[in-house]
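tokens incoming
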């Protein structure tokens, strides 16, 4: 640098300044509590900011560089973030690996999707926590660099304000105490910069005035704020607001990629509906249906999931679909169904329980109408058509907020007894639902399917064996994070990692079923809604889901549920192996769905605005703690070496340099008393060296002695203290001693006689 030398604060003042920057950053985080539900994310961010602050303080204690502490803090923060948010799913990791960055970036992308899809206040899930941590650490490092490294504490307030921007833009107020504490630490930082750095008689007074002024300003603001706001005009002023809710409505993704991790659940309400049994006409005397006794108790669970669309084409990594060109109209009074024997008929109570379902669309923008998987009538206004091959209701415009439609659902009395002897049917799709992509591990997947279903004699028994295999908690773990691909077969990668979400479970069962010559596809939609306590049901993005459907002769496409029970609940009654069985006495422990502590509802197939999943992301802090310990241990060793080399140069002032020179000269027999001034010391040292070595100092050595003496004299007596870099002071001492050592060593080699006493006697 040219011009004025940048003076970096050292010692307690520097450490206190960095601590105040960290405290102001932590206080500013309270500005986000109105946007994010308060939880572990706040404590996690505080801990990481404090660890980074400790590293910055430690590095600044042993270096005069203005940028080195910030660089060290950035490196440590990056290591912590990569370990905490980039660890492979289900594996302990204390140091980042080659895939940590990719996994962390994937989590960050999920965080952006969560923010775009969530209502305020949003859940403080792991992807959102990552963004908050990175933002908070960046604010601290920038504020510390500006305030301490560059010596401009007033400008550090701009960095702190960064954490308040989201709340200001969205118009969500923060607590007054959050503002007060942030202002308090910021003003203390300004007071620290105003306090004198050297020992003068008025040091305590000036420091006290600065601190008291800061506190008084905060108190006056808190007391005067409400009074000022009461004046006409002030109460009507508002900060700019660009929205108080999610960026856009939810939309299900129809390109399901098994290699992508799943974003956190969307809290948006997408559907509201009611369910009521169909009451027979008074004059009618219909034959009692098998489920007639349950008609008065029909619920959303009886109606089952609401399917939006189905997927048949899979390339080994991703599901894909193209729009059908074979769309037709339909009679709203007749049934739509994948079973051609039922399609176009009227609802019949002899085949099952009839239920009226009335739905209202909320934050859902979807071209395919969510309908029951069972045969149903659909009464909807607008440009909607039916795809009989996929059993989908497709619209030109799509759903919109406030849209309503109605269904009469024929809930079949299907049981395992109806399916146990059923043969594989032909869905009429020219074999598309039997295609298995050829990959390097497709044969391995098929072999495993045959191993799992060994002993099963019918297609239904094979399907049940596959479902049981995937639902067993000893075999698989539900996890929204997906490990990086290891091969060209995403199903095989999932079977090896044993961790995934609904898309992985549904796809794997579908591909295994196809390898056993059972037609299979994947359906995407929503699990049954939750009660709104007013007789209706509410479906949010938390309920979006994917499941496999297998085709059986006489029953059509039948839903199975391989995703673990803690995410989906019990499977359908026809595929529930424990229906009618006493679980405590007969169910093996490894097959009974055991809800995880704090587990929430199912998640959904991901999409740019429809990602959903459970918050199964409370990663243990052990790997982070181990990583921090390793980093601090290595850093401490390195800093100790640096300190060993620079301990005599750190915090070197003219007076300390003078004392150091006096001690080193004294060890060589050159001394002076406290009564001597720096100018007289120069003369005394030269005289002693002349007597001891036969010659005084010359050249750069005497220049160093005189420069050091002049600087000490100015430091002690001048109105303004000299600004001399410690490296220069240390260089003068070293140059002085080099000349002294040279003189005395030359005399020793010449064998000179001992010098006479200083008084000449």
């Amino acid at each position: 640098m040219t011009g004025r030398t940048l003076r970096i604060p050292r010692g307690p003042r520097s450490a206190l300044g960095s601590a105040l920057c960290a405290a102001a950053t932590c206080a500013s985080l309270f500005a986000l509590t109105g946007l994010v539900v308060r939880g572990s994310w706040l404590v996690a961010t505080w801990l990481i900011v404090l660890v980074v602050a400790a590293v910055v303080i430690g590095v600044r204690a042993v270096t005069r560089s203005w940028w080195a502490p910030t660089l060290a803090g950035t490196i440590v923060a990056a290591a912590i973030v990569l370990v905490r948010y980039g660890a492979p799913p289900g594996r302990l990791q204390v140091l980042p690996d080659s895939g940590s960055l990719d996994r962390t970036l994937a989590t960050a992308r999920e965080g952006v999707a969560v923010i775009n899809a969530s209502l305020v206040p949003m859940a403080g899930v792991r992807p959102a926590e990552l963004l908050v941590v990175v933002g908070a650490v960046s604010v601290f490092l920038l504020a510390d660099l500006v305030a301490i490294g560059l010596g401009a504490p007033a400008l550090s307030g701009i960095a702190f304000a960064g954490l308040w921007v989201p709340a200001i833009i969205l118009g969500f107020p923060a607590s007054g105490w959050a503002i007060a504490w942030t202002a308090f630490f910021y003003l203390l930082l300004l007071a620290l910069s105003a306090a004198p750095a050297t020992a003068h008689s008025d040091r305590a007074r000036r420091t006290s005035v600065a601190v008291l002024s800061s506190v008084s300003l905060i108190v006056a603001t808190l007391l005067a704020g409400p009074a000022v706001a009461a004046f006409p005009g002030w109460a009507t002023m508002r900060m700019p607001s660009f929205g108080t809710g999610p960026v856009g409505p939810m939309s299900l993704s129809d390109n399901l990629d098994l290699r992508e991790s799943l974003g956190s659940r969307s809290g948006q309400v997408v559907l509201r509906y009611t369910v009521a049994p169909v009451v027979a006409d008074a004059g009618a005397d219909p034959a009692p249906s098998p489920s007639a006794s349950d008609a008065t108790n029909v619920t959303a669970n009886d109606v089952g999931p609401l399917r939006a669309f189905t997927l048949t084409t899979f390339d080994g990594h991703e599901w894909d679909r193209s729009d059908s060109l074979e769309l037709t109209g339909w009679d709203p009074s007749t049934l739509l169904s994948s079973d051609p024997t039922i399609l176009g008929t009227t609802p019949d109570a002899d085949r099952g329980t009839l239920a009226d379902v009335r739905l209202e669309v909320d934050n859902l923008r979807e071209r395919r109408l969510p309908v029951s998987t069972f045969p149903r009538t659909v009464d909807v206004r607008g440009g909607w058509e039916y795809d009989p091959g996929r059993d989908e209701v497709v619209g030109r415009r799509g759903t919109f907020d406030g849209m309503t439609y109605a269904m009469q659902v024929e809930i079949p009395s299907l049981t395992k007894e109806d399916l146990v002897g059923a043969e594989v049917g032909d869905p009429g799709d020219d074999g598309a639902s039997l295609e298995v992509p050829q990959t390097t591990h497709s044969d391995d997947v098929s072999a495993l399917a045959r191993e799992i279903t060994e002993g099963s004699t019918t297609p239904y028994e094979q399907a049940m064996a596959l479902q049981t295999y995937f639902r067993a908690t000893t075999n698989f773990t539900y996890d929204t994070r997906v490990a990086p691909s290891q091969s060209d077969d995403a199903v095989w990668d999932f079977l090896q990692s044993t961790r995934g979400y609904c898309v992985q479970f549904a796809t794997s069962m579908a591909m295994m079923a196809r390898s056993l010559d059972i037609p299979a596809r994947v359906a995407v939609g929503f699990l049954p809604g939750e009660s709104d306590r007013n007789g209706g049901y509410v479906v949010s993005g938390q309920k979006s889901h994917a499941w496999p459907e297998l085709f059986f002769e006489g029953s059509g496409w039948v839903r199975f549920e391989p995703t673990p029970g803690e995410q989906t609940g019990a499977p359908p009654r026809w595929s529930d192996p424990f229906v009618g069985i006493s679980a405590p006495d007969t169910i093996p422990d490894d097959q009974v769905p055991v809800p995880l502590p704090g587990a929430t509802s199912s998640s959904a197939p991901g999409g740019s605005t429809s990602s959903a999943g459970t918050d199964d992301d409370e990663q243990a802090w052990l790997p982070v703690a181990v990583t921090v310990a390793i980093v601090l241990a290595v850093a401490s060793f390195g800093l100790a070496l640096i300190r060993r080399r620079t301990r005599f140069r750190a915090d070197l002032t003219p007076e300390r340099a003078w004392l150091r020179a006096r001690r080193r000269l004294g060890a060589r027999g050159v001394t002076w008393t406290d009564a001597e001034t720096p100018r007289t010391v120069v003369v005394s040292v030269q005289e002693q060296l002349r007597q001891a070595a036969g010659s005084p100092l010359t050249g750069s050595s005497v220049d160093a002695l005189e420069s050091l003496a002049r600087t000490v004299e100015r430091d002690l007596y001048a109105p303004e203290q000299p600004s001399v870099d410690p490296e220069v002071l240390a260089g003068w001492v070293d140059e002085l001693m080099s000349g002294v050592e040279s003189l005395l060593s030359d005399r020793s080699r010449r064998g000179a006689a001992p010098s006479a006493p200083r008084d000449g006697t």
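note: DSSP finds 22 helices and 17 strands in the chain.
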